[in-house]
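Worked example 3 (structure in, sequence out).
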């Protein structure tokens, strides 16, 4: 069987006849490229992921317990200083690195370009999200007299734009040799009826495979080897879209060291039982984050003896791992979830369709699914107003407007030295 017949056979078997029709609109060269791509994709895996997306997620309540945490605010001065000292010694000795996950599509924000290139309208002049992150790291570098290596995970879609943007802005004054870009893996997008989407480039539309892909790509790209060469022992992994993200929190790092664990995370208390965030728990004895959509209502509202939400510690993409933990996870297979996204596509006639509503599944591994490979995690409860200013939606909650307000309030408070 030749390559064309082989591809057509696979498409028929996987109910993707719309692509066979679409091929009629292509030139010989375009057709060849598409065939090549189809033969390189594991379509059966995508069909399986689509089938899984149709099934309800089942959670057995009796296997879930609340997780323990330390509230940063309730530490006394001595306790806090002791943890800080532990954390500081790691950073000062050059054993600390940071990874920014910037491979997302940012579909909800509707910004054209990588999310890190979005300018938040703060203090009149505005600041780009990458600039805010660079400032946070530069502040740590100054404080601890070091230069923290900064790894930025991009996607095929946004890698070039990210690189050009950072070059143009001279890495916001960060040491260029300490900024390392690497790209993540991809999976095809599929509409809600199980049809693969065709992209503007007349190929099957691929998108980054979720932030859980970070670990494997750190290893595959050589970034992990680079970290080892630099003598890194602890790695912070965070998102690109939290304007109050603290990437060098010595209390969190100190807590992880003092509790002798390989992973740690900062949480904040859920604003209300139904806030759309993932919460920490222990499932079958292992740390886990349950997505808001997967947490039964009764559990979401459950309170403990102190009247606090039993499952109230929300995950804010503020995670720490030892280098060994990253190596271990990088060899595991994380499960894929299906995220509902708005993605433009070409129809059978090759016409560009820009949907107004979510129209497709993006199959994503989530970073927090890595926690299950460990027996324990150190959790430090931070404060919403100090630690969390997400830029997710174009308007309303978690939007540039709310992030600007939180960012300015925090920095005004800090400048009046209420926060150290
Ligand atoms: P989100 O899940 O909020 O997705 O990412 P997003 O792509 O930024 O935005 P929407 O959902 O399309 O509107 C949380 C963090 O994980 C990163 C994002 O860049 C962000 O820092 N991420 C997400 C990746 O690095 N790769 C992915 O495939 C997905």
């Amino acid at each position: 069987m030749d390559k064309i017949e082989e591809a057509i056979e696979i498409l028929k078997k996987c109910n993707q006849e719309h692509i066979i029709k679409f091929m009629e609109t292509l030139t010989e060269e375009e057709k060849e490229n598409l065939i090549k791509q189809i033969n390189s994709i594991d379509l059966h895996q995508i069909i399986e992921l689509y089938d899984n997306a149709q099934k309800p997620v089942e959670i057995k309540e009796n296997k879930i317990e609340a997780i323990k945490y330390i509230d940063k605010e309730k530490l006394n001065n001595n306790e806090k200083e002791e943890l800080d000292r532990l954390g500081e010694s790691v950073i000062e000795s050059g054993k600390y690195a940071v990874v920014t996950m910037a491979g997302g599509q940012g579909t909800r924000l509707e910004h054209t370009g990588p999310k890190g290139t979005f300018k938040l309208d703060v203090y009149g002049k505005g600041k780009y999200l990458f600039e805010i992150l660079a400032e946070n790291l530069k502040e740590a570098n100054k404080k601890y007299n070091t230069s923290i290596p900064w790894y930025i995970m991009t996607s095929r879609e946004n890698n070039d734009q990210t690189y050009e943007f950072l070059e143009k802005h001279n890495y916001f004054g960060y040491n260029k040799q300490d900024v390392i870009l690497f790209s993540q893996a991809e999976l095809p997008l599929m509409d809600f009826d199980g049809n693969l989407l065709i992209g503007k480039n007349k190929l099957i539309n691929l998108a980054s495979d979720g932030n859980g892909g970070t670990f494997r790509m750190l290893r595959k790209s050589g970034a992990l080897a680079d970290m080892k060469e630099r003598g890194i022992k602890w790695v912070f992994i965070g998102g690109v879209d939290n304007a109050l993200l603290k990437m060098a929190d010595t209390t969190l790092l100190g807590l992880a060291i003092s509790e002798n664990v390989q992973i740690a995370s900062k949480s904040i208390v859920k604003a209300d039982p139904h806030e759309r965030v993932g919460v920490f728990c222990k499932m079958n004895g292992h740390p886990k984050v349950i997505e808001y959509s997967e947490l039964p209502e009764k559990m979401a509202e459950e309170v403990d003896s102190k009247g606090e939400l039993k499952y109230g510690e929300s995950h804010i993409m503020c995670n720490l791992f030892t280098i060994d933990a990253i190596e271990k996870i990088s060899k595991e297979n994380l499960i894929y979830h299906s995220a509902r996204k708005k993605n433009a596509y070409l129809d059978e006639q090759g016409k560009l369709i820009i949907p107004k509503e979510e129209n497709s599944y993006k199959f994503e591994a989530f970073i927090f699914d890595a926690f299950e490979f460990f027996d324990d995690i150190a959790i430090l409860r931070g404060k919403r107003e100090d630690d969390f200013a997400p830029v997710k939606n174009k308007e309303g909650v978690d939007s540039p407007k709310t992030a600007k307000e939180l960012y300015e309030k925090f920095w005004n408070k800090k400048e009046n030295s209420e926060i150290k």
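Notes: Residues 41-419 form a domain with the Spore Coat Polysaccharide Biosynthesis Protein SpsA; Chain A fold (CATH 3.90.550.10). The longest helix spans residues 77-92.
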